[in-house]
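Field guide to reading this record: the first block holds the primary sequence, the second block holds the structure written as C-alpha cells, and the final block holds curator observations. Each block starts with its own label. This record concerns L,D-transpeptidase, catalogued under organism Mesorhizobium helmanticense.

BLOCK 1 — SEQUENCE
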Amino acid sequence: MRLKSFAILAALALSTAITGCSTIGSRVFSNDYGAMTDAGYSLPRIPIEKVPFKYRRQVVEYDTREKPGTIIVDTQNKFLYFVMGDGEAMRYGIGVGREGFEWHGTARIALKREWPTWTPPGAMIKRQPELAKFAGGMEPGLKNPLGARAMYLFNRGGDSGYRLHGSPEWNSIGKAMSSGCIRLMNQDIIDLYDRTSVGAKVIVL
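BLOCK 2 — STRUCTURE
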C-alpha cells in the first residue's frame, strides 16, 4: 500500500514538473531565431541550440521600482532586462565590455537606427590601425559590427559613445569582449528595438 501511494505521489510530482516546464517554455522564445528578411537584408538563422538556455530571450519575474519601458543592464550576469511591469521583464542575453572597457551608470536612448552605419572612434583606430579605412563609416550590412539595429546612449554630457546594438557574432553572447557597448543577437536587438522608445531610461549596473 505504501509503495502504491509513493508511486501515485511520484506520478503527481512528475506531472507537476512537466506542467511547470511547459508553462515556462511558452515564455522562452527559442523559436524566434530563424532566418529572416529585414529591410532587404537576409539575416541567417542563429544556431540557438548552441546558445546557453539562460541567454535566450524570455519573460522572467523581475522586481524593480523602475517604470515599464526602462532598460536595466546586468553586466556581471550578462543579462539585459526590459521592464514590462506587473513584476515581469523581458530578459535578453548580452555581450559586454572586456576588461578595461567596463562602465556603469544611467543614460537614455537618444537615437534609434535600423541597419546603422558604424564609425570606429579615434581611440579604437589608434589601437587597431587597420580600421582607418572605416573612419568615414562602414556601410550597413550583415558584417557591420552594429548589426541590424543600434540605440545610442546619451547622458548629461551628451553622447556617451556607447550603444545597445545587434551583432552577427551570436557566440559572443554571455562573454566580455566588446569595447564597452552592449551587444545582443540580431534577432533580439530587433525585438528590443521595437519595444523601446526614444527617451527610455537605461541603467547599467
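BLOCK 3 — OBSERVATIONS
The chain has three helices and 13 strands.
The longest helix spans residues 2-25.
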